[in-house]
């Protein structure tokens, strides 16, 4: 079976640097990525095979590589503006549902000379607070996806346990019925031979 590959394209724009100011780490966008393999298409399938995720920049250079993971969370700095490719590869024979989240954050500056000295720092703090708030939401989304995955795994395991218990009970009842039949047959033969 050939592995299933699905790709998502994400245009990333890097903001132009301020003409008079350059701040370390602000010239490029920061991309936050997370994914969680939530479930397979069958309740009887349980494995930690995971999926592969390869991220490539617009030139086709590999930015990140996750192999055989059921969940991952990482970030990277965009080096070249353009369309980035996020490719998932599923080597499992089962279709898997993947919760995938991407956020691109920018450092933005307000170039209004009359307001820079008064409002510039305030806007910067608001922007940082917005970025920090998104980081919390990003983490919360990732944890929610992890919780959903665990809930589905637990439900599938309990379903399998119930099916196994029912199967074992049916096998035990069948074995008991066969034993009763064999014992009756044995005693009927003994009674038949002792009367003669």
Short description:
By secondary structure, this protein is an alpha+beta fold. The chain is 42% helix and 31% strand.
Counting DSSP E segments of at least 2 residues, the number of strands comes to 7
Element-by-element helix/strand order: EEEEEEEH
Structural class: alpha+beta
The helical percent reads 40-55%
CA-based gyration radius: 30 Å
By DSSP (H or I, 4+ residues per run), the number of helices equals 1
Under CATH, the topology is which? Jelly Rolls
Q: Tell me the strand order in the biggest sheet.
A: 1-6-3-4
Distance between the termini: 69 Å
Largest β sheet strand count, sense and barrel closure: 4 strands, antiparallel
Gross geometry? elongated
Mean pLDDT: 79
Which range does the strand content fall in?
A: 25-35%
The unreliable regions are 13-27, 108-113
Which architecture name does CATH use? Sandwich
Count of domain modules: 1
CATH class: Mainly Beta
Protein name: GOLD domain-containing protein
Main location: membrane
InterPro entries: Emp24-like, GOLD_dom
Subcellular location: Membrane
